Amino acid sequence: MTAVWLAGAVCPAQARRFLQEQKTPQQQEEKKAQRTEKKKPQEKPYGLIFGTAYGPDDRPLYGVTITIRREGKKHSTWELVSDHRGEFAQRVPADAADYLIKGEAEYAPMGPDGKPQMSKKKKLRGETRVHIEGEERQDVGVHLQ
Questions:
Q1: Is the pTM of this model over 0.90?
Q2: What pLDDT, on a 0 to 100 scale, did the predictor assign at position 34?
């Protein structure tokens, strides 16, 4: 019988037990697959509202505060801010529902010298409605006036 020495094994009996407990590569793969299946959470179905906020000059507007709420509810459920391309996106439950999307921003028009005219700053608002029917994506545009 050949002696098997393993790091951390105190005696030959402990080393033999360690070798007996070793699994074949196929068994190791099966065990790994079982662990990854358990870790994956079940993702709930959702609909996607994707939109763009436009300013009075019909160009995408950055930094618009977007609020989304379900029709019939008083308070907004989600509050977002549009990115540098004026875009925003929000996952909503996949059941059939109507949503009200409101946008609000402050806008300072550019003067002839290329600088924003802060004294002529305006508060812009706009709203639109969208209907979600299950797992789907709806693209909307919010035009602020």
A1: no
A2: 77
